[in-house]
Amino acid sequence: VLGGIGLILILFLITPQRTAREAARRMQCSNYLKQIALALHNYESKYGYFPPAYTVSADGERLHSWRTLILPFIEQQELYDTIDLSVPWNDPVNAEAYAKSIPVYTCPSDTFPKGFTSYLAVVGPERCLLETEPRAMSDITDGTSNTLMVVEVPKDHAVHWMCPQDIDGPLT
Fold first, then answer.
1. CA 12 to chain centre
2. How far is CA 68 from the centre of its chain?
3. d(CA 144, CA 137)
4. Is the full-model pTM beyond 0.85?
5. Nearest-5° Cα angle at 139, 135 to 47
6. Nearest CA to 164 among 37, 66, 36, 40?
């Protein structure tokens, strides 16, 4: 009987620890979203506009995500300097950068393959980021506090952090 009581006590002690750890992980995810938002605003402060959701080649092929473009603003300038922005994100030339996992783009609660992220931009004419064009803050007429920039999506919608893919339809 005493052994059973001891086991129950251990379970009661472990459960709150697990809950507290998960709460700490979720808090870190929230902090990462704030860092991403700050990086987007710092990009806007430097260039006078928010980055496009993705860059394109002369023939319209998607090249790089906004996540690549804001690397210098999340203390990843060195990595940014290794990326060839004139070729697609998954070109062998960019293999070294592709192999990297960016901590700010990886929520500790997620169990994705290395390099994947659940942080996607909300893209479109009535959104913060446009597909292939930069957007001035003054063009956001409903105010930046009322406009979604980046959201955390479920695991099955995660993409590689370099992938130029985001949410470009209605939010449902």
1. 36
2. 10
3. 8
4. no
5. 40
6. 66
Burial grade of 127 (CB within 10 A; 0-12, 13-18, 19 or more): buried
Measured CA to CA, the distance from residue 91 to residue 137 in angstroms comes to: 32
> What secondary structure, in 3-state letters, does the chain show?
CHHHHHHHHHHHHHHHHHHHHHHHHHHHHHHHHHHHHHHHHHHHHHHCCECCCEEECCCCCEEEEHHHHCHHHHCCHHHHHCCCCCCCCCCHHHHHHHCCCCHHHCCCCCCCCCCEECEEEEECCCCCECCCCCECHHHCCCCHHHCCCEEECCHHHCEECCCCCCECCCCC
Burial class (CB in 10 A: 0-12, 13-18, 19+), 6: exposed
Residues 96-146 pLDDT 10s: 999 999 999 988 877 788 899 989 998 988 788 889 998 888 887 776 566
